[in-house]
C-alpha cells in the first residue's frame, strides 16, 4: 500500500515518534512524504521514504497529485489546528482529494493509530480492488 505522511512543523516530532513506534508495520509499505517530514522520519528510523519537495515549495501539491491519480491508499497529515505557520499549506486541498477518492485520512494521532492498526490487519485491502 502507498501511505502519505505530512506533518506541520509543530507536529514533526510527533510524526517521528509515530513512525518509530509503528516502523514494523510501515516498513511493509511504500511511504511518501513532503520533503522535510520525510527527511526527519528517515533520520530517526531505518524506513525508506519517497520524498517530495518541501511542502511549501510544492511538495504538498506533488503528494496531492498522487492522490488525484488514485495512487495513495492512506494519508496521515498531522496538522497543527491551533497555530499553523503562515507558510504551511492548507490541509483542505488534501482533505478534499481524499474525500473524492475515498481514501482513509487521519489528522491526529488517535486516528492515525487506528488506521495503521487497521492497515496491518488487512482492513484496507479493498483499496487494491477499487484502486
Ligand atoms: O506541507 C507541509 C505541511 O505544512 C509539510 O511540508 P514539509 O514536510 O516539507 O515541512
TrEMBL record:
- Report the SMART domains cross-referenced here: MGS
One molecular function GO term is: methylglyoxal synthase activity
| Broad enzyme group | lyase
Q: Which InterPro entries match?
A: Methylgl_synth, MGS-like_dom, MGS-like_dom_sf
Q: What is its EC number?
A: 4.2.3.3
Q: Where does substrate bind?
A: 8, 12, 34-37, 87
Keyword list (alphabetical) reads:
Lyase
Q: Which Pfam families match?
A: MGS (PF02142)
Q: What is the catalytic activity of this protein?
A: dihydroxyacetone phosphate = methylglyoxal + phosphate
Kindly indicate where the leader peptide sits in this chain: none
All copies of the MGS-like domain together span 1-131
Q: According to its UniProt entry, what is the function of this protein?
A: Catalyzes the formation of methylglyoxal from dihydroxyacetone phosphate.
Q: Record's family?
A: Belongs to the methylglyoxal synthase family.
Put simply, this protein is called Methylglyoxal synthase
Amino acid at each position: 500500500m502507498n501511505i502519505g505522511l505530512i506533518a506541520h512543523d509543530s507536529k514533526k516530532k510527533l510524526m517521528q515518534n509515530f513512525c518509530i513506534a509503528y516502523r514494523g508495520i510501515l516498513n511493509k509499505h511504500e511511504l511518501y512524504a513532503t520533503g522535510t517530514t520525510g527527511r526527519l522520519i528517515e533520520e530517526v528510523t531505518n524506513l525508506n521514504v519517497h520524498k517530495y519537495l518541501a511542502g511549501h515549495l510544492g511538495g504538498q501539491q506533488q503528494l496531492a497529485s498522487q492522490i488525484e491519480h488514485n495512487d495513495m491508499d492512506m494519508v496521515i497529515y498531522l496538522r497543527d489546528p491551533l497555530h499553523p505557520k503562515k507558510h504551511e499549506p492548507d490541509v483542505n486541498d488534501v482533505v478534499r482529494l481524499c474525500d473524492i477518492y475515498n481514501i482513509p485520512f487521519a489528522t491526529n494521532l488517535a486516528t492515525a493509530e487506528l488506521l495503521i492498526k487497521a492497515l496491518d490487519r488487512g482492513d484496507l485491502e479493498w483499496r487494491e480492488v477499487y484502486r
